[in-house]
Amino acid sequence: MDVPGMEFFFSKSPFIAYSKKIAAGKRQPLLFSCRMFLAVIMFFGLLNIYLQRVGMSVAIVCMINHTAVASSNSLQFDNRTVDPNCIKSINRTEYIMEDGKLEYDKVQQGHILGAFFYGYLISQIPGGILAERFGGKKIFGIFTAISTAATLLTPSGAKMGLGILLFLRVLVGLGSGAAFPILHSIWSQWAPPLERSKLVSLSYAGAMMGSVAGMPLSGALCEFGFAGGWPSIFYITGLSTAFWLVFWLIFVSDNPSSHSMINEKEKLYIINSLQGQLLKNPKNNGYFSALPWIGLWANMSISPLIADKLISSHYLSITKTRKLMTAIGGIGASACLVGLAFTDCRAYPITIGLLTLGVTLSGSQYSGFLVNHIDIAPKYAGTLFGISNMLGSVAGFVAPPLVGYLTKNQRKDQWMVVLFISSGVLVFGSVFFIIFGSGRLQNWTTDDEQENEDGAELKSML
């Protein structure tokens, strides 16, 4: 749709002037570039980190002696609210479940799964601050080494006692929690504004691919793996991450200026483009569990292309683009959760479809509020992401006991309450960002004496 006067507006817009200035600096192809290589190596790093993270979700099914636990804490069903066919399905599933050797009850299992988030919570802000002060390469390597060592020690720790296992899971969370703030800090030095959505989303898609691969891989290792099955999950994911870490330390640098293999043209392009901002059955369950993450990964590959196109073609400002993507991801996923509340176990294709669609839509947020820290304050992107992700990760240890409390009898009406609460939280967060969010470079991120024409032009385009 043509808007009167729009052509004149765009011809005089500082946004166009800034874009032309970048173009005049000989914009370098993204394909086969050092910044693309950085995105790829980050992709595989997050893939490995998420393999470490999700492995316990599957391993705990294989490591627990369900027969012993069930004898002391049997699950009761209310036949007035649970379909008899569902009970038969559940009983049949439990009948074929193979037992492990560890005897942790449901409460202890909840603590094991939730322990990760205690470490994940406390490392968010320190990770971002340390990366901004000392450089992201070494700090990311240190935190990843911590989580990797804890992962490799998990099988032994689980056999030694609950306390040691919980401590190791906290360490895994500690190492993993700093990942996104640190990578945000690195991208603030590497990602040109007009490529930011693509590069950040590509690299962060590794986390989703780790979830996609982690579920079926862990399920298969539980059943067919060495060292008794479930321990092989932690050995393989730990060794894979250690192998990747060697490449990270050799080939990655904190910024283009310190990169040993980048060509001069690409280095100057990145530096010049940032001048205005940086003034300084376990197996079967695993396959089904992977479906939503496959959709999420696909959307994370498509939505950044759309977002960057909207911005670079001047259809929408950065602020409006971030809000649009956040609305699609948050409100769209919320609608799917409401739909899930009204399905039952016999309509599993609909259930899987709604869950997959909801998680898929949520991928749009990676081109929305999740990249917004770099838009508004690239100098402090790591710290800001650490703060917001720390607050968001509170749900990681609040939600499991809350859901357990609300669904004591596993009734459908109880699960409807959980889904409605989750949907409401998504809508609230999305609407809040749509109302108050901004893609404008903030004045407090720059030094007064260094304010110049480039900075003013860049802020105008937002």
TrEMBL record:
<feature type="transmembrane region" description="Helical">
    <location>
        <begin position="233"/>
        <end position="252"/>
    </location>
</feature>
<dbReference type="GO" id="GO:0015293">
    <property type="term" value="F:symporter activity"/>
</dbReference>
<keyword id="KW-0458">Lysosome</keyword>
<feature type="transmembrane region" description="Helical">
    <location>
        <begin position="383"/>
        <end position="403"/>
    </location>
</feature>
<feature type="transmembrane region" description="Helical">
    <location>
        <begin position="112"/>
        <end position="132"/>
    </location>
</feature>
<dbReference type="GO" id="GO:0016323">
    <property type="term" value="C:basolateral plasma membrane"/>
</dbReference>
<feature type="transmembrane region" description="Helical">
    <location>
        <begin position="164"/>
        <end position="187"/>
    </location>
</feature>
<keyword id="KW-0813">Transport</keyword>
<feature type="transmembrane region" description="Helical">
    <location>
        <begin position="139"/>
        <end position="158"/>
    </location>
</feature>
<dbReference type="GO" id="GO:0006820">
    <property type="term" value="P:monoatomic anion transport"/>
</dbReference>
<keyword id="KW-0472">Membrane</keyword>
<feature type="transmembrane region" description="Helical">
    <location>
        <begin position="199"/>
        <end position="221"/>
    </location>
</feature>
<feature type="domain" description="Major facilitator superfamily (MFS) profile">
    <location>
        <begin position="41"/>
        <end position="462"/>
    </location>
</feature>
<dbReference type="InterPro" id="IPR036259">
    <property type="entry name" value="MFS_trans_sf"/>
</dbReference>
<keyword id="KW-0812">Transmembrane</keyword>
<dbReference type="InterPro" id="IPR050382">
    <property type="entry name" value="MFS_Na/Anion_cotransporter"/>
</dbReference>
<keyword id="KW-0325">Glycoprotein</keyword>
<dbReference type="InterPro" id="IPR020846">
    <property type="entry name" value="MFS_dom"/>
</dbReference>
<dbReference type="InterPro" id="IPR005829">
    <property type="entry name" value="Sugar_transporter_CS"/>
</dbReference>
<dbReference type="GO" id="GO:0005765">
    <property type="term" value="C:lysosomal membrane"/>
</dbReference>
<feature type="transmembrane region" description="Helical">
    <location>
        <begin position="415"/>
        <end position="436"/>
    </location>
</feature>
<dbReference type="Pfam" id="PF07690">
    <property type="entry name" value="MFS_1"/>
</dbReference>
<keyword id="KW-1003">Cell membrane</keyword>
<keyword id="KW-0769">Symport</keyword>
<feature type="transmembrane region" description="Helical">
    <location>
        <begin position="324"/>
        <end position="342"/>
    </location>
</feature>
<feature type="transmembrane region" description="Helical">
    <location>
        <begin position="348"/>
        <end position="371"/>
    </location>
</feature>
<keyword id="KW-0968">Cytoplasmic vesicle</keyword>
<comment type="function">
    <text>Receptor for CM101, a polysaccharide produced by group B Streptococcus with antipathoangiogenic properties.</text>
</comment>
<feature type="transmembrane region" description="Helical">
    <location>
        <begin position="30"/>
        <end position="51"/>
    </location>
</feature>
<dbReference type="GO" id="GO:0030672">
    <property type="term" value="C:synaptic vesicle membrane"/>
</dbReference>
<keyword id="KW-0770">Synapse</keyword>
<dbReference type="InterPro" id="IPR011701">
    <property type="entry name" value="MFS"/>
</dbReference>
<keyword id="KW-1133">Transmembrane helix</keyword>
<dbReference type="GO" id="GO:0046942">
    <property type="term" value="P:carboxylic acid transport"/>
</dbReference>
<protein>
    <recommendedName>
        <fullName>Sialin</fullName>
    </recommendedName>
</protein>
